[in-house]
Amino acid sequence: MGRTSRKRRSSLATRMTIASAALLLGGGGLVAVNVYASAHEDSADGQAAGSGTQQTQQTQQVATIDCPDVGTELSDVPDGARDEVDGELATLDSQITQAYKRLASTRDAAARDPQFVENSIMDPLKKNRGAILERIRLEMERRGGQAPDGMNDMAECTAQPKEGEQAGEQQPPESDGNQDGGGDQDGGDQGGGDQQQGNGGQAGNGPVAADFADITKVQPNVQKPENGDNASTGTFTSRCGVNDNKKFNTDNIIVAPGVSNGAHHLHDYVGNQDNDAFSSNDDLANADTTCQNQGDRSTYYWPVLRVQDGSEDFDADKDGGGKEGNVGKILRAEKASIKFVGSPQSDVVAMPRFLRIITGDAKAFTNGTANANAHWSCTGFEDRQLTDKYPLCPDGSKVVRSFAFQSCWDGQNIDSANHRTHVAFADQAGNCPQNFKAIPQLKMRLVYDVQTPTIENGQVQNPFAVDGFPEQLHKPITDHDDFINVFDDQTMRKVVDCINKGDRCT
What we know:
Elements: H1 11-15, E1 62-66, H2 70-73, H3 82-105, H4 107-112, H5 116-142, E2 158-161, E3 212-214, E4 235-238, E5 248-249, E6 267-271, H6 281-285, E7 299-303, E8 305-307, E9 329-331, E10 335-341, E11 356-360, H7 364-367, E12 376-378, E13 390-392, E14 399-404, E15 408-409, E16 423-424, E17 437-438, E18 441-448, E19 454-456, E20 459-461, E21 464-466, E22 480-484, H8 489-501, E23 504-505
């Protein structure tokens, strides 16, 4: 499905409430995934523990709100309904943000009344979600489609208790409001500001010490499939800079077109410079690009990385920034490499223009690991990858985020209703699923020069963290990356020829 019309504001955008998210108190990290996993590997569910936990005599502190991800279940939305459905899905995200803000601002009332969270937050959220789900159903049926069975059951969300409380585990000591992450006993901003509010982090919604791991203690775990006789072994590198233009916004043109602040977190952009929620394919095709090869006007974007050192950036009082728990100093990548590689088993075919690919899952903390594809490491240690931990790098080593996008295409669609099923990962041997074709695989590598956080007495000082939805608690497993192919036809042919001939091209 192409979007070639002029920029317009979706009708849903005008009636959508973009809520600000605030501080969350209480919570922990995911159980560690076994060092290296990609989105096509089998892994544990990864969801935060606690749903179904029996009420204890002492009221449990709620860490976050876990709602079913409706968008992932909508794999068959009629073309004519997609814009409206995408807007309604964005409204569901805003409802979670609003509920999360209320959760954070009413913890005293929740502590006094064991039923407060359920009655004042979760029940209204369920009612509001139910109304949106009904609108989605009606819109799909109006366009000749059918909503999936059981969609109405996805209205109900779960208040996730703080990890450890439900199992009676001992937790690291928490701040009582007088101790901050930098050692200033008076609650000032020195050395990282007021970082240790219940859930950790400068804004009180993560990360926590358990979200970090010493990379030197991780065993090498990277495995690559062996090349077959018909492997395509070339590469094509596109040099597009590191966002020197400071192109930022909190939109998501793929998932929430026509909706301002549809991402609820800030994105870095390189390549195409006409990126916002209202950009059409025509806008993208005619835009400027930061890429040296002007035949590549593709859109490459990812959530910013911040260091939570008590400082504030330009978006401290804005939606998607400080108003939604994304705080601290934005870090610019020192390097941002963009490389397209081939298939271990076959030649590749050209990607269609305006193909959209999302890799990773911005909601993996609550969704589980099915679509997670985060990889964290350090320079000099990139044979060791972490998925649900941020790396603690030794002196002289820098933080690395890497992304390996889906490399198989269904041969027909540039997008899908859930923005996933039109592309797929190859299997462990490098083979695409049946009826899918191998395409140039985008691999991105972002390098950051950031001071290694310190952990003392179970508290992390001056942590770095990826931007995200507020209820995701800045977990590293939520890292993700986005791409829209806007290569011109001639340059795409060069990409394919270089890869299939085994050449190294830029």
